[in-house]
Protein 1
Amino acid sequence: MVRVSLRVNDEVRSVDLDTRTTLLDALREHLQLTGSKKGCDHGQCGACTVMVEGQRIYSCLTLAVMHEGNTVTTIEGLGRPGNLHPMQAAFVKHDGYQCGYCTPGQICASVAALDEIKAGVPSHVTADLMATPQVTADELRERMSGNICRCGAYSNIVDAIIEVARSPA
Amino acid sequence: MRPFTYERARSPAEAAAAAIRNPGARFIAGGTNLLDLMKLQIEVPPHLIDVNGLGLDRIEGTQEGGLRIGALVRNTSLAADERVRRHYGVLSRALLAGATAQLRNKATTAGNLLQRTRCPYFYDTAQPCNKRQPGSGCAAIGGVTRLLAVIGSSEACIATHPSDMAVAMRVLDAVVETVKADGTTRRIPIAEFHRLPGDTPHVETALERGEFITAVTLPPPIGGRHFYRKVRDRASYAFALVSVAAVMQRDGTGRVALGGVAHKPWRVEAAEAELPRGARPVTAAILDSAKPTHDNAFKVKLAERTLAAVLAEARG
Amino acid sequence: MKFDTPATNNPIDQLKVVGQPLDRVEGPLKTTGQAPYAYEWQDVPGRMAYGYILGATIAKGRIAAIDTAAARRAPGVLAVVTHENAGPLGRGQFYVQRFLAAPEVDHYHQPIALIVAETFEGARDAAGLVRARYVEGRGAFDLAAQRDTAPVAQRAPFGGPPETAVGDFEGAFAAAPVTLDETYTTPDQAHAMMEPHATIAAWEGDRLTCRTSIQQMNWGLRDLSLALGIPKDRIRLISPYIGGGFGGKGTVQSDLVLAALGARAAGRPVKVAMQRPLMFNNTIHRPATIQRIRIGATRDGRITAIGHESWSGNLPGGRTEPTTLSTRFLYAGANRMTRVRLAVLDLAEGNAMRAPGEAPGLMALEIAMDEMAERLGLDPVAFRILNDTQVDPEKPERPFSTRPFVECLRVGAERFGWSRRSPRPGAVRDGAWLVGMGMAGAIRGAPISKAGARARLDARGIVTIETDMTDIGTGSYTIVAQTAAEMMGVPLERVVAKLGDSSFPETPGSGGQQGAPSVTAGVYAACTKLREAVAHRLGFNSADVTFADGEVRSGNRAVPLGQAAGAGDITVEDSMEYGDLSQRFAQQTFGAHFAEVGVDAYTGEVRVRRMLAVCAAGRILNPKTARSQVIGGMVMGIGAALTEEMTVDKRRGFFVNHDLAGYEVPVHADVPHLDAVFIDEVDPTMSPLKAKGVGELGLTGVAPAIANAIYNAIGVRVRDYPLTLDKYLEHLPALA
């Protein structure tokens, strides 16, 4: 067992963990933050997406002990019922989800994807590597491809993200 | 996942020494492949050496005019680096064609080179696999082989190497820099870094025990137009059926390497002389010793047609 | 309440709330991560332990010996459940699979043990310490090898008759001037819902409560009772949020049984989530099929003979994949036959997945129709319109309740720009892309079953509905609340819908696209009773009372609804039962799917460029969530057309690509903007809501529309799904 301190959603949380505990299981089983989902536990679905130090990652494929002192943002840190983050509100409005299981991961991933575009990170579908990437449906489809939605809400999810991207901050 | 002890290394040499001290230890950086395999008990290291704090996360110019990429530079950072995008577009493209943003944010340059095969029989511990358990046999041979190797395979193993990045690095003549526990360093040309399976498919690279990758260097830019064309079943988040990394010059000469066809990035320099004559003679030369199965014979044709697509784009 | 004559005007027809495109009522919970799924409940009394399932590593045989000593000694291990200590276990009624190898192993990854430990990490590690020795038996894993020997299937519930014959099929087919006789294959497919099968089981004495993920609570209760050999009234299942199901969570799977056994063995509540790499070989799936279709027609395109024979395989006693269902109803033709044969295969069980039968059946039939149209020189839309029927082709005296199939086709063709399609394959080029358009018809049965609900009114005027209906992403919460709001004359915010608890009144749950029509009719019945009780409490004459704007009005009196419950909550319960309307009318949903694809002329990669679905499913209760159901089906259809296949290792007897990396479902990049519209119709023969389900209709016909578009793009006909590029690469245009 090792003591691990994480700054989760602006709150420092310290827990004693097995070295084998993933960041995802630390959140779900030890910090009672079950918004991050376990869909596959092998980095093949995206449901566990959270942001660590502002970057989206799969929390199932990293050990909690490797994140001592890190800042973690989960879906619970974006907004709450009654005080939704604009992306959460856009998902509700555009029906960008059905069963809801991939949804927290989709929302975390979309917030980070817009940040990555802003930061100039290119994608597989960026036509010109030297040009500034734009928020387009094709860009978002590629950038969001690490989040599987078996209910098939993709088309609505892209509509939701575009609305957020184009609304004044 | 078996229990393991965990330490954070403070220098590359110390990491290498720790690996020597702890038989079976593994370095962990991004962890995106290693932890996946540990959960399935395909990897069972008793000790993990976390190398994330070593600071090997910079991309610097070399004296020769190339680039030195720290072993811990994340795939996202490497793909987005302005110098890489401008002068080594094939590398940027290859990285962006691989995995997903979440994985690229974690995965490192060295880890990408060291990722293990995605052969489904390797991944299923109930099945014999010479790579996972030397001498146990290969369940893939005679089994479901559509995604597996068409060339360079052996009686012991028909797995492919899954990396896209490595295919681009092969075309760029990258060099892998390492340090050993005694502090000695060496430079391994990418062509010699990955091994063919032969009768020891569990030995995948030229690294010695404890040897630690510190950087990958790229020679000075070679100009030309850069292409990485990856063909897969779904449009993203999938491994290649076949991929083509190519750097094409205005005069029709160039370099080409294939991914998805072998146990390592597949490049036959001699075949590149045929590039001005089109895709068929090039792929015929590159894949002349191919021994595909019934299920993956299409890869040979697909490689030719994918290269043809690249050459057409290069012309257009 | 009994529904035995077609509906007339009723409060639902106001459509103040029902029929409106409202946001999901549980949306804020789902988008903030606050909706608790099975594995996530924090309120279970007692100290939680973790279970980990160990699967068999052979496909067929038996466990000769299983050594759990090392696992039991491992740190934190509380119990190891195997056949040696589990006691006798029964099977469920709908799935034939056994939940534990005991000691016979029926299929790969059948559970052989559950390890229970203090932590997830401890249980997972200890699973690796269990040593099993097997005696391997000979299994059968190759469907095609049994094509000549598989017998005609037994009749099974929901499957339709295994053989049908009308007129003289063989004679008419032989005499037809234009014929088609082709064979098509569809692969084993996985539900691959995002939430793995998961359960928290807790015993209090001999009473068992399970938070789980089950689509049909009544079946879950029945089957868990059978599995464990304990009465249903000692079991409670709770599944308010379900992370997708698509039929794969219809009823009890091994996570539920093993969690209950593990909790009993450990004397602690136990949580179990089936590991993703186990799911593909452990649980049910949609089985592969071989389908032979024969169509005979006159030269002007009228079908005179239509025959559909189908083969699938299953564990002994398992169900067939009833692919011939839709062929019986979709097109006219005086001479008809269908036949389904069932092989024995020692793979994981084949069973219901979204639109069982119809989805794979139409994957074959609707390519065949495309081929036939081409042979006849007819446009595929026109050919289908020509062969429309307004009566059940097997029983011409039985009309369809509604059948706007032709309207779906015409509206779709117009909206999609079908007239721009080149009838000549391979004729349209856009840069490196060969571009093609394809379409397919769609049909899916519209079943409805007895469903109950409890309705409660409190003094604040809040209406609470309780029913064991589930919401698997389908929008049940919202349409239940909409129905109650409409009936009681209150805004949606004044209704609380509580679902997914086996202690609530029984419904058929989520399955067979009958959930929406069934549960809303049950809510209608309960609310009708509540209206009567309210009127009675207020001393109103219930004949002239109206419920609107939060008030109850009668004559010139109007009082707030909540006032009726001023002296205490009013709680009523009722259910809707059905007469013979489903016998008198053929009740089906219809659709037309259109697709445009690009096929890379060099590599053969396919990109779906545009898709349109036009659906007719009676009254659409919520156009927003119904559209989502349809576009979700379209995404699953893209997967069925292009990538999804569980590949069988026919030597070793298992699905090789048993994870979400190997089994490729569509990702964002595979899916363009999707267009889905509904035909404006109501079906008064269904229920007072005049509605049908739509969730499975959205899938049927999608894959063949894409397959036909690929043919139109490249001129190569592929009859084996999925249409991966290796199947036509050789036939693409030669390179310049």
Protein 2
Amino acid sequence: MVLVKIIIILGVILLVVAYLTYLERKVIAHLQVRIGPMRVGWHGLLQPIADGLKLLVKEDIIPEKADKWVFILSPIICLVPAFVVYAVIPFSQHFYLANINIGILYIISISALGVYGIVLAGWSSNSKYALLGGFRSAAQMISYEIFLGFSIIGPLMLAGSLNTLKIVEAQSGVWFIIYQPLAFALYLIAGIAETNRIPFDLPEAETELVAGFHTEYSGMKFAFFFLAEYANMMVVSSMAVILFLGGWKGPFLPGIVWFAIKVGAFLFLFIWLRGTLPRYRYDQLMRIGWKIMFPLCLLNIALTGIIYYLFL
Amino acid sequence: MVLETKELLLNMGPQHPSTHGVLRLLLYLEGETIVNSDPIIGYLHRGIEKLAEAKTYTQFIPITDRLDYIAAFPNNLAYVQTVEKLMSLEVPLRAQYIRVILTELNRIASHLVWLGTHAMDIGAITVFLYCFREREIILDLFEMVSGARMTVNFFRFGGVAADLPAEFYPKVKEFLDTFPAKIADYEALLTQNRIWLARTKNVAVISAEDGINWGLSGPNLRGSGIKWDIRKANPYAVYNKLDFEIPTGQMGDVYDRYMVRMEEMRQSTRIVHQALAQMPDGEIKGKVPKIIKPPAGEAYSCIESPKGELGFYIVSDGSEKPYRVKIRAPSFVNLEALPLMLKGGLIADVIAAIGSIDIVLGEVDR
């Protein structure tokens, strides 16, 4: 039974991730007065599959000077955690893989492992652009991981649990976004930075570092990084939905549909931002993180604590 | 234990997404900070100045299209104007106005390419496609006039190749009426954007004094606060009959150069409006001998191209072919100041700086 669930979830996630790339291309295209992919299938609907096939049959280049095993291993280190975290995400009241007490902690700690994939990819490529990309991600992703962790302490205090199901149940009356608007904003910024999306896409800043940490990757290994990035976007969105927007809760429609709608709204936001904003500079990014985000996170925790102690 | 630190030598280009063609930059880095930089050029060298010596004066006009290939009309104008000076040719008023209209439209097109690529380098991809949407309209106008979108080969000694076609006028009016709103659109995406400000303010600063010492011209110099525009300082064609302003900046940073060019697009729109209204009827070509044989001697004349001061220095020995042609390409001179701007900045600033000096390698390498 569990195995069937695992296969369903993995299959659906892979398909959704593939079509997320399609959605991104279409939405960005229409934002930019273009029409996007149109050739493969009706309105380009088979494009992600064609892309996947293309990447599968492409030559898999390992640079001569690269650290071979680390080079091969790092896309896998990147990809696996991005999919493993789905184990504790409750898609609806009854559809989830594992119900563990430390759900949120599990998500944060597992997804943190993905950073190593990126850092090692930058290091093992033995290319200067990839190295700089790796440096940037080491600084950026590790520090934003901290803000991500701190920003969700507020809602966790309100829920009184790390269990994803209990957190959603705690929002039966009012969604936590009402009580914790500041935490929500902080979480969103940290989440975007965590997934390397514009305006924080410095590790792979195309116009500066060619392709950043994955400059030397091709074929399926490159696709792994790509899949991981999009899977992480969904994880960040799902966590936002669970922590702030009441998870699967909503009137009339079944829980899983509500969950999909809410996650979809976040994914659209990610894409929309990419169509609108320029990119921050590396030092500015770190300054925002440590000098603005971090104090605000602490302030939010303190305020939540005081109010919780006094009134509840 | 003492950790040894080493300078990192990063080769940026000639194949790089944002070195605007085939510019190669050697960056000496300490972490991501730039200690020194070295622009290396020549990857697009076609020997254009030498080519001129083997061609007749007329045959060289189409080759000038290939200098600054995104602004061919100004190149034509600068060359044609110098030969006219050499031969003391009169240009009919109507032809002068046609020249001004087309060069100013080309200035808008060139600035649109600059804005699009510059914004894309900094990460705002959408602006790029908006700019190219408007540029397409201008290129269609050029095609209507000259038959070509970029390599126009349209100006002739003593005039222009043909009169403007009748369908040109409504189209250009339509463009001029809608364009200011489009500029407002670009500005809505960038000018007040916090990230854009953070990326451009106080980045790649060049002072007015350095600007003059390094021979900068065009919007790069005006961004540093020097009000120097050849259209005003030494008016050619019919610019002294037209009313327009020269925008300047103060700081000489990327943001000021950005603001100067944005305003220039508006001013160019104004100029084209006025020129269309003032344009008289009449000849489009003056009295020109069948064979172009300038008397022995030399002449220099320059114009304000979208990139800066574009000058041609021609030495004639009295034959059908020029003895020597020297092109003062603004991009080449502007590029020389790049290392000065980059010093102490970060890699991300390199991209912003290259975009902001608006170079075209076709003109740098010649």
